[in-house]
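Lab notebook, bench 4. The sequencing result for the construct came back, and we need a structural model before the next group meeting so we can plan mutations. Quick request posted to the team channel:

Model the 3D structure of this chain.
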Amino acid sequence: MFKSGVGFLALFGLGWWLLGTSGFDGSARPAGVVGGCAVTLGLMLAARRFLPASAGGPFPADRRRRFNQINGLQWLLIVVIAVVCARAGVPVLIPPLVAVVVGLHFLPLAAVFEQPRLRVPAALLVGAGAAGVAVWLTNSPDTTVRLVVGLLCALSLWGMAIWTVTGAASAARQGVRE
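Done. Here's the predicted structure in token form:
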């Protein structure tokens, strides 16, 4: 299910979606949760069904090490952001700044995986983080910041998952290994 990263994109997309919909009231919140779960499940099932068995196979040791280094640094920066923002009294900035860090982590991953298209979610997530900061600077409510950042990040990650499934499935049908 985690072929070619689709499972990770789908699940992290769901996390961002849940953040974005956290400010919904009434029946909109449960509907948003159910909708996000349905999208995530659909993406994971699509990856399982349409991606070739060879998609996203095991990494060579050097790539696995570099992947782990990049992700370790990403998580360290996320912890630092959370601590600094909490202590500074601006926890609302945690999601936008985390979106920037997550977006930036896709840039070295594009090289590790030899997938230049990973620059697209990099740009989209950095843009989502910048949009969240811009919304915060307009003195909008915290829920609006979470909505903007969460939904933009979720749609970016889910869009990348869809692109991965359709691209790899199309390449497999044509007999080309992506």
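The helical segments are 6-20, 28-50, 61-88, 94-112, 119-137, 142-173.
Will bring this to the meeting.
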